[in-house]
TrEMBL record:
Designated name of the protein: Zinc-ribbon domain-containing protein
Organism the protein comes from: Nannocystis exedens
């Protein structure tokens, strides 16, 4: 078995597993290059074209992604991060909401950034990067 064949079979298995976990399916597999658009179907029956690399990056059905999620879902996502969603009204995934982390930092961010890009508190992220750099500098001494 060649390395190319092994890599291709793992790629197919990975994208099929992601689709199955979401209740969907890859509709064909002739060319699974990461940038080649393939046909997919979600659990609600929507079909669309998307590159398998995007699926591996956790981008799924565009029609389902545009479904109104609501403020309750935003609060649930914030709680999963140990924080809260301060905003009272959800408009869409592109309209900024106010968030608060467990440390009390507040900021504005799009729901799509928190949900799809897995971002959270920029202040905590900055502090973590700074602490990491300081630790690396100490280790070099």
């Amino acid at each position: 078995m060649t390395t190319r064949f092994v890599a291709r079979s793992r790629w197919i298995a990975a994208v099929r597993e992601i689709a199955a976990r979401r209740g969907g399916a890859l509709l064909g597999e002739r060319d699974l290059r990461s940038r080649k658009k393939l046909r997919w179907r979600c659990a609600q029956g929507h079909e669309w074209l998307r590159a398998s690399g995007d699926i591996l990056d956790d981008r799924w059905c565009p029609r389902c992604a545009d479904t109104r999620l609501g403020i309750a879902e935003m609060q649930r996502m914030a709680a999963a991060h140990g924080g809260s969603c301060i905003s009272k009204k959800y408009v869409d995934r592109h309209t900024h909401l106010q968030w608060e982390c467990g440390e009390g930092h507040r900021w504005w961010a799009r729901p799509s950034a928190v949900r799809d890009q897995h971002t959270w508190c920029p202040d905590c992220a900055h502090e973590a990067r700074r602490a990491n750099l300081q630790a690396m500098a100490r280790d070099r001494r």
